[in-house]
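Cast an eye over this sequence plus tokens and walk me through the fold:

***
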Amino acid sequence: MTDSPPYPSLSLSRQFARWASSLRYESLPEPVRDKARAFLLHALTGASIAHLSVSARHVVELILAEEGKSDGASVFHSQQRATRTGAAFANSEWIHASSMFDSYRMLNHPGPVIIPAALACAEIERRSGYDLLVAIVAGYEFICRLTDDFIPSTAARGFRPSPIFATLGAALSCGLLLGLDEDGLVSAIAVAANFASGLNEGPRTGGNELMIHEPQAARNGMFAAVMARAGHVKGSETSLEGPAGFYNAFIGNAEGMLSHSFKGQRRSDPRNITEGLGSEFKLLSFIFRMYQCAGYNQPVIELMRELREKHAVKPDQVARIRVAMNTIETQYPSPAFPRFPDWQKPVAGETTHYFAAYTVVHGAYPVAGGRPPAGAAAKGIDPAAAAFMSRVELVPEPLRPMFSPSITIELQDGRVFRGDYPYERMVWDYDQLVVRLLDCLPGFHGGSTAFQALVSAVRDIEHEPLVASIFSKLTALRFNESTHH
């Protein structure tokens, strides 16, 4: 049984502000510290892998031209610096361009938001590694609890949940690094609630506005904390649960009524949001996305690879493949506004049919920064996988746990193989993540030597008196060197 909310008579934002303002590194369980390091490693690996992204470089160059500041915060892959908000945006863009997102409740990806915002703040404010990890923990735990049961209902209102919720997480993280007290954190949360933005029309129709959703969320969260510290803005006490507050705007009501959910329930009591706060850390259940595709395809790829290898399945033996997954996973980006209303129609490079087909045809699917399997197309749509898609059938199940697919492979000779992939298998600690990231080394800027330097620097980050030192240590990664060719 979990603990009751720590301060049940207080507003939600004040409960979180009081908890965060009293949070200390020494009080964090080691698995929580370990997970915070993993968040940092995953995001920085993504930033390195993205170093050749032309679109990201163009966006970052624009930011440097508009917000360059000689004594500002460091910007990855550049000798120039920028304002703290500019650096948060630019570094978020580098992380986002790699598609290396962490994930919670399918649609929440705070890594490209909280990490760059916290790094810029910690560098400018001359904070220690201890301070950085505490701020990361606070921001992540905050948005875990804000999103928990509510995220599908947010998506169904046309909003893209990731930047909506992550803006608030970045505000809390940055608020701590800026030295805000409890009242200041309440104001930072309130300002961030007013800044939260991001629509699902782009993901629904193929627009690419989302390439700056997370970067703008990093900027907005940072700026909310800066405004709160300036003291000119007093945030509303009930900015989250008030009748005209955050939940009413982004869920549709402040009473916890749900239009959609992963588990089929139609209500989630808002009083449970802070249940167990301080003793139970939901951030421990985050997973790390490794493939450049929607996160719900990751367990499908993993399970398909295992079944193919275990049973020595050859593509020409397969009659049919059935992939059972949570219904909302077949309705991306929103159960009310799916990009592909005909969820059973395969779309190459887009729907789960393709990623399952690619893996059974080639035996694997390349991670971000990794090399394609032998025989697969070097880039773009793989013809053999596209041709195989018609043999893949999706089976939506409303009560199936998210990111926990079941796959049934039916062979032409009548044999049937089946396997399940529970979500928990993707919940990795730091060392497990390091092993998985080794597959990304072909695309890692600086290769194995630079990656090992990053692993060591992040593993020991709490011993750094100044977070700024991590950037000097990552010179081998060329994060602070020009990469123009």
Remarks:
- The two ends are 58 Å apart (CA to CA).
- Strands lie at 68-74, 81-82, 102-103, 287-288, 318-326, 392-397, 406-411, 416-420.
- The chain has two domains: 12-286+429-477, 297-425.
- Residues 30-49 form the longest helix (20 residues).
